Amino acid sequence: MIKRLHNLDEILDGLEPARRARLEREAAEVSAEVDALRELRRACGETQTEIAAKLHMTQAEISRMEGRPDIFLSTLRRYVEGLGGSLDVRVELHGRAFSLLSINPEAEEIAEPILRPKRQTRLKKAS
C-alpha cells in the first residue's frame, strides 16, 4: 500500500487554529532572523561577492551564512568586520544595559567584559 504524501498547506489546514498560528509566528521569526544579515549587507551597499572577497571566502559561503537561522559570534564578528563595522554584544536586564563583549576590528582585540561573575571565596574556619 502506497501512502499519499501531503503538502504543507494540507498539514497546516488539519491543525487546530491556535497551534497553526503559533507555528506561523515561529516561522516568521526565523525568517526575519535569517534575513537580518542579508538586509544589513544590502544597507551597506555591498554584494555577497564583495563581502566574500574581503573575508577570503566564496560567494556561496556568504550566501549559506546569510541563510542560517543561527550563527557563531566569531562568524558574525567576521561578517560585520567585512562590512566595515564592529560588534558589541549587549544584554538588557531589569531596565539596565550591559556590554558583555566589545570587539574593536582595528585593534583586533577583545575588550574586557563589563560584567564578570563574582568570585566566591571561602573563609577559613577558626580552629
Number of DSSP strand runs: 3
Largest beta-sheet characterization:
3 strands, antiparallel
Trace the largest sheet across and list its strands: 1-2-3
Poorly predicted spans = 103-124
**H and E order:** HHHHHEEE
End-to-end separation in angstroms reads: 81 Å
Give the secondary structure arrangement, pairings included.
Layout: H1 8-13, H2 17-43, H3 48-55, H4 59-67, H5 73-82, E1 87-93, E2 96-104, E3 109-110
Antiparallel strand pairs: 1-2, 2-3
Helix pairs in contact: 3-4
What does this structure look like?
The protein has a three-stranded antiparallel beta sheet. The protein has helices spanning 8-13, 17-43, 48-55, 59-67, 73-82, and strands spanning 87-93, 96-104, 109-110. Helix content is 47%, strand content 14%. The chain is α+β, with helices and mostly antiparallel strands and 127 residues long. 6% of the residues are buried. The chain starts with 7 loop residues before the first helix and ends in a 17-residue tail after the last strand. The protein is flat and about 55 Å long. The chain contains five helices and three strands; from the N terminus they run H-H-H-H-H-E-E-E. A hairpin with a 4-residue loop joins strand 2 (96-104) and strand 3. The longest helix is centred in the first third of the chain and has 27 residues, at 17-43.
